[in-house]
């Protein structure tokens, strides 16, 4: 089933970490397996922020040498960043297997990403000047507390609660997905794509990489590809409504915008609230209401509808 | 508007002569009327005896149980504050009751009801009034998809916009929409009426067996086997009266509504109205 949510503040920032935690917790019944956040901070700098993991959560519970291995993997990440010329400014460890680095880098970013992900067990969850992508097993409150997201300030965010249907219960298959190798682009999705393999094979032939077998990742890669081909975000999303088969509602965020698209059958839910300074959306209205103390008016977008908002 | 000129044999086959008979079709259900839809174990309530409570801190099942407790103690008018878009509120009420929600409902609100008059001041989520048998449900703002799915009788009114697949599998009663309706409205509709005062999305009336759809605005396109019909004087009078019950009007007069009906005979069932069926089942 899955639940998705998004919010964007126009011209201001707010505690989007706390707000998104409330919204996703209200959607827990739509998917208790994992929860993910794509948060866009309000102090984008020239440094890049990289969120990455060096193991799956379940690896830590089962492997004999895994505790030593994750230390080795992180050390290899450090070595390769240095080798590629990245100047690391800060390093934070959220869990034994998940990290947040910021660094200055002016070289070939795709080559840097590929070099780091070449390390066994290492996956970059996101890279960007504003984007920080966090996902793990458990409900929104568990993940938010684990990664200290309750006080995260920023302009916009998307999030996801997952009920695993077509791939494993692990961080790799959790949403959101970062649109490798593009800075600051992330996707959450509720639905099923029926022409997944056709599109995946096409995109792989064009050089794009997939980290999971989850159909939702395809949307992120597809959008990244279309942007690379010259489409702007809205054009890429409109094209996706024609070219992706299946039932879906998805959200895409970039460094300064947030978009929503719905399939031509309108088979997956989405409720919107729109005001001059804040737009909020979710699979169910109860999520939107979790951040409003007062009565609000909401509405459903229609079939095939695409909308994009700027922060 | 799309060209509404699909070839059809429906009029030759003698379809679209549905009579405005049966209690849930012809008579606006009123708590004060002699019309009696009560079940053998129905509860006697006094519409002058009212109660209200705050649903904000309550669980869904507790809210529904509270409604039943109040009905059992004779309350005929109940107001629920802060429903908070919770799901499945006001469901399974098989009794006369005036029920007011001050706020919005989530999914499956007011489903499986038979008899109550319900008013919602906010919005409703997907599948509002699914399988409704009799009574009225009036929503002051917007509604989500599958509004009135498999509805069998009564009046279901949304004064704002509604989502896709409104009236899917509708088997009776009347759905009234003040604004726009999404795609596949009236999909596999079998009987009853849908009145859309605004625009209708694509595939309107797709695979409808019978029943009638009236549209005041633009129709994006018609679904398979849906065709345009002519509004009769009887229908015009009925539409005028029905809309007036809810303080609504067709944008350019009821005579200028576009009538959509089934173009082929796909059905093979009796002509009993839902209320009549209840008596013989």
The domain count of chain A comes to 2
Radius of gyration of chain B: 18 Å
Number of helices of chain B: 4
Mean pLDDT of chain A: 93
> Structural class of the helices, strands and pairings of chain B?
alpha/beta
| Spatial shape of chain B | elongated
* Largest binding interface between chains: A-B, 18 and 27 residues
CATH topology grouping of the largest domain in chain A: Glutamine Phosphoribosylpyrophosphate, subunit 1, domain 1
How is the biggest beta sheet of chain A arranged?
Answer: 6 strands, antiparallel
The whole-angstrom Rg of chain A is: 18 Å
Per DSSP E runs of 2 or more residues, the count of β-strands of chain A stands at: 15
State the end-to-end CA separation of chain A: 29 Å
What oligomeric state do these chains adopt?
heterodimer
Proportion of β residues of chain B? 15-25%
The CATH architecture name of the largest domain in chain A reads 4-Layer Sandwich
| Strand order across the largest sheet of chain B | 1-2-3-4-5-6-7-8-9-11-10
Helix content of chain A: 25-40%
Q: Treating each run of at least 4 consecutive H or I residues as one helix, how many helices of chain A?
A: 9
Q: Could you give the order of the helices and strands of chain B?
A: HEHEEEEEEEEEHEH
How many structural domains does the protein architecture of chain B include? 2
* Strand tally of chain B: 11
Main traits of this protein?
heterodimer; A: 311 residues; alpha+beta; Glutamine Phosphoribosylpyrophosphate, subunit 1, domain 1; Alpha-Beta Plaits; 2 domains; six-stranded antiparallel β-sheet; five-stranded antiparallel β-sheet; 9 helices; globular; B: 281 residues; 4 helices
